[in-house]
Amino acid sequence: MCSETRPNAKPETVGGNSKEQNMKHLLLILTLPFFSFLQAQETSDTLTYARTVIIVPEGCSAKSKFEIIGCNGFSAQWLYLKQEMIDQGVDKQLFSQLEQQLDFTKKSSIKFKSQGEAFEGYQYKIKNGTSRILGLGKVNDQWLILNLGFDKAPRKNDELSAFEKNFIEL
């Protein structure tokens, strides 16, 4: 057999580890994001809404720490925005994109409070009879777009559950 010597050959070990150990470490590093993703997909019993922790009602489960869907006819999702995004009109673009996804028959302006802070937006009557409210406001110094869904459009605070009042007060 002929033995070949390469001038720039890499050693079989790096930092005292063998190639096999390095590959195991690399595999571990590559799988961590995957497991983090799976963990993020698990349901949660609390929501984090602009630095406020909200307990999910019994019988409901949050899709993530930032979204709850189908909780006794109510859903809530929110998207945080930076001040620069507001200054550049990104909020208006997002409203437009969200609105294009709604199959609505009626749109009206609405002002409401969320966590005691003023919000402005629109209420939509959806063709399937449900209602959606999209609003922009600031909670705990954090700008956000709030996307709320209701089986039946609320008209006054007594029609809102204690859980819903975490997100909206009319």
Task: Give the helices and strands, then pairings.
Elements: E1 13-14, E2 17-18, H1 19-41, E3 46-49, E4 52-55, E5 62-64, E6 67-71, E7 74-81, H2 83-87, H3 90-100, E8 104-114, E9 117-126, E10 131-139, E11 142-150
Antiparallel strand pairs: 1-2, 3-4, 5-6, 6-7, 7-11, 8-9, 9-10, 10-11
Mean of all residue-level pLDDT scores: 82
Cα distance, first to last residue? 86 Å
Percent helix among the residues? 10-25%
Q: Helix/strand/pairing class, anyone?
A: alpha+beta
What is the percentage of strand-forming residues? 35-45%
Shape, principal axes of CA atoms: globular
List the domain count as a whole number. Answer: 2
Describe this structure in words.
By secondary structure, the chain is an alpha+beta fold. The chain has two domains: 14-43; 46-166. 23% of the residues lie in helices and 39% in strands. It contains three helices and eleven strands, in the order E-E-H-E-E-E-E-E-H-H-E-E-E-E. The chain has helices at residues 19-41, 83-87, 90-100, and strands at residues 13-14, 17-18, 46-49, 52-55, 62-64, 67-71, 74-81, 104-114, 117-126, 131-139, 142-150. The longest helix has 23 residues, at 19-41. The radius of gyration is 25 Å and the shape is globular. The termini are far apart.
